[in-house]
Amino acid sequence: MTAGSAQAHPRIAVLLPCYNEEAAIAQTIAGFRAALPTARIYVYDNNSTDHTTEVAAQAGAIVRSEKMQGKGHVVRRMFADVEADIYLMADGDLTYDAAAAPALVAKLIDEQLDMVVGARKSHEDDQAYRRGHALGNRLFTGLLASLFGRSFTDIFSGYRVFSRRFVKSFPALSRGFETETEISVHALELAMPVGEIVTAYGARPEGSESKLSTYRDGWRILKTILILYRIERPVLFYGSFSLFLAALAIVLSIPLAITFFQTGLVPRFPTAILATGLILLAALSFFAGLILDTVVRGRREVRRLHYLSLPGVSGEGDGR
Predict the structure, then answer these.
(1) Does the pLDDT of residue 161 top 80, yes or no?
(2) How far apart are CA 104 and CA 101, in angstroms?
(3) Of all helices (H) and strands (E), which one includes residue 17?
(4) Domain boundaries, the chain
(5) How many Cα atoms are found within 13 Å in the side-chain-facing hemisphere of 304?
(6) CB-based burial label for 256 (10 Å; 0-12, 13-18, 19+)
(7) What is the pLDDT of residues 175-223, one digit of tens each?
(8) What are phi and psi of 198, to 5 degrees?
(9) For the domain 3-232, what is the CATH superfamily, name and number?
(10) DSSP state of 205
(11) Across 174-260, where does the E strand assignment appear?
């Protein structure tokens, strides 16, 4: 296959991570087959205890499995194993609008992007988008924007289209549902061209249950954001600790300084020692941030060069 033919007829892979989606997977596969007739549809089963794999195979999907439990593990396996020019990832629960897939793919190709997010808009708020999840989405989206300078309107959407160079440059270190957050941060940190399209989001069919836990997964997502912030913004992360420790040391030392200027004595040695220790810790934290920032810059340059070594959407080759 030549570069020109690959660009005119890119290989599209639809990736559906699944766990106990017997009730919805057949309709999900049928929807994406109708929307993208030339795409190859992969269902990656994650230790389902129902008949998800059998139903998916009967529906004509390529069925594979990942034994390590968690969506992050499944995404890592899918991105490593599947070869294509364009990748569309969605959930197998029939909540995402398969009819929007051609528009997502077209936007990726026409604008030469590396990722297009299907930002969810529910018309069945009480059933499809629980109030706690909607509020959490807004809060975490705002937090990500404040920490990294820009964000998406729906960072938790599992409906995304990727270029080959995004997929093959993404480290996929997460284990669970926080993988969408890691994907978003990866795009932001490497300054990739990305876009969004608002897509419909529906309720699960009867017999299909959500695997999300509002508080447990919310905590894991928050922890992931903070860890990624520590890794990607060490000067600001450790600098904030340095500023806090220095401010605390100054507050503790003010009464000591006043007493010293009045009497020439330092009567509270434990407080003086504590303030001195806090200043030393503040200095260590600040310089640790500076050193780690140099490391991060070097690592980011390597990641960027690897990303640029892969062909973009406008020049997709045969995937070799």
Answers:
(1) yes
(2) 5
(3) strand 12-18
(4) 3-232, 234-307
(5) 12
(6) middle
(7) 877 888 889 888 888 889 999 999 998 876 766 566 556 666 667 777 7
(8) -75, 130
(9) Spore Coat Polysaccharide Biosynthesis Protein SpsA; Chain A (3.90.550.10)
(10) P
(11) 194-201
